[in-house]
Model the fold of this input.
Amino acid sequence: MSSSAIFDTSILIDQIRSDKYHARIPSVIGPIRISSVVLAELARGAVTKTDAKILRALTKNQKILTPTEKNWIESGELLANMRADHGFESTKLRDLHFDVLIALTARSCGACLITSNRADFELIRTYRDFDLEVW
Done:
């Protein structure tokens, strides 16, 4: 069992937009951490003042975990293996890259990654095992 949890961007977007997980979030055991990669994805999509306010609150109130040099290098290796195994085009590899970094960061920290993006993270997990919970 993991000692902490990291929410993927998919969970945070659904929570911000619709409060979809209001009943599930309090049931998470252990501290909740946030990935700097998730923050970057959220910042890229922030369009309103409310979005910006939520992003500032997340950066202020959560411990932020950042991919290491090893995570970055390993992410490139995993993506190369995925391309070889599945014939993914560069656009698919670009789409997967941030998810791979989030997964590797969670793995490095012993955190459970919580996502609603089952397909991509289960694919990543076939290359590197990490604690995954799909909502």
